[in-house]
Amino acid sequence: MSETKSSKRAPMDLATSTKSYLFEACKRLDFDEQTFRLLAEPSREVRVELPLRCDDGRIEIYSGYRVQHHNARGPYKGGLRYHPTVDPAEVRGLACLMSLKTAVVRVPFGGAKGGINCDPHRLTQRELEAITRAFVEKIHRNVGVNIDVPAPDVGTNAQIMAWFHDEFAKIYGYSPGVVTGKPLIIGGCEGREEATGRGVAIVIQEYAKHRAEPLEDKQVVIEGFGNVGRHAARLLGEMGLKIIAVSDSKGAILNENGLDLDELGTHKDSTGSVAGFSGAQDITPDELLKLPCDYLVPAALDGTIDAATAKKIKAKVVVEGANGPVTFDADPILKDKNIAVLPDVLASSGGVIVSYFEWVQNLQQLPWEHELVVQRLNEKLGKACQHVFAVATGQECTFREAAYHIAVQEIKDAIWAAGF
User: What domains sit in the chain, N to C, each tagged with a CATH number?
Assistant: First the structure.
């Protein structure tokens, strides 16, 4: 048994890929069909309609979603995504991934995900606030400090979390732990914004230790220069790696001698894109994925590397900074090419680990210094990496198979321990 990319979607959607990976994990663990179904199906799905009066007087109606996968290990936990591609299937797959991710790194949360099918770049600040508050008004009975704790994701940020918290507080009183990723001034956590990118860097560092390989001058290609990719690039650069190519939703650039990240950041902030950066040559996003390099970090949306793209990948290691960038049908192709994949449930878990730290601080009303956050993130994610690498070595399986083995067993044991 972060940053958005182009609207191109892979033939195999995220929900299908995630369920397929889960099915294979259950078969390896010799779980029966009923156990697989119990692990695969979400506990609750909520859909709400959100009428928005736009600044020009028009009325637009958006759909909002919240899928709660499993909470045997703790409150549901997962981001809120504002993006035109948000739909029930995508949110369902992301919620399942969150259950697996929290189990791999052993933080006491279950998994959830939510979102609104809007383009935040086409909404004004007032419209974004209005639609966020309307969403809270519709789903407030299904979230809470010990029920379900949302966080930022693609298209959302600390400001949106602040509006979410404020609207929730109007009903239930001051409850900073209801969301994470908030501004520091209202209970946010030092280091939260950089956490997912820092997690990517930590996982690469741990992998290099596992392989007894140096990091100095290793070449890195990053798809997605938003929150995750930009912080990962900076931290990897500080470790001595060479960032040779990056992309965003508007273009891609290459400098085989290494990009000047400070100048690139200034260019991105002033123009809104990495495209046209004077310190590099413009290339296409498809060309970027096929560049020879040591580490390829897909850090945009899901489905970037499908079966057709996987055949052309020349990286030595793929590090999934996004959720679900490698589809289920692409995974065996990379394996046959001896390309290691550091899976999303491990490599992109820095955000949820630091979200857990923020939640703990809110419950205790005791903020931590940045140094303590970084120290504890390194410790927790380092232990998770070592566990995954040890299982992969002991069972002679891929890192994804090892991570799923750990997570699926953990969730199943928690469900059974609760007395199902």
Answer: 42-176 (3.40.50.10860), 195-347 (3.40.50.720)
Whole-Å CA distances, 304 to 5, 318, 342: 9, 12, 15
Digit-coded pLDDT (tens) for 30-40? 999 999 999 99
Catalytic residue among 5, 113, 182, 218: 113
Q: What is the pLDDT of residues 317-333, one digit of tens each?
A: 999 999 999 999 999 99
Range 275-295 average pLDDT: 95
pLDDT of residue 383: 98
How do residues 377-388 score in pLDDT, each as one tens digit?
A: 999 999 999 999
Rounded to two decimals, the pTM is: 0.93
Q: CA 408 to CA 412: how far, in whole Å?
A: 6
**How many other C-beta atoms can be found within 10 angstroms of the C-beta atom of residue 71?**
22
Q: Write the pLDDT tens digit of every residue in 358-401.
A: 999 999 999 999 999 999 999 999 999 999 999 999 999 999 99
Q: What is the pLDDT of residues 173-188, one digit of tens each?
A: 999 999 999 999 999 9
The verdict on whether 337 is a catalytic residue reads: no
| Predicted pLDDT of residue 1 | 54
3-state secondary structure 306-343: CHHHHCCCCEEEEECCCCCCECCCCHHHHHHCCCEEEC
In this prediction, residues 192-221 reach a mean pLDDT of 96
Q: What is the pLDDT of residue 139?
A: 97
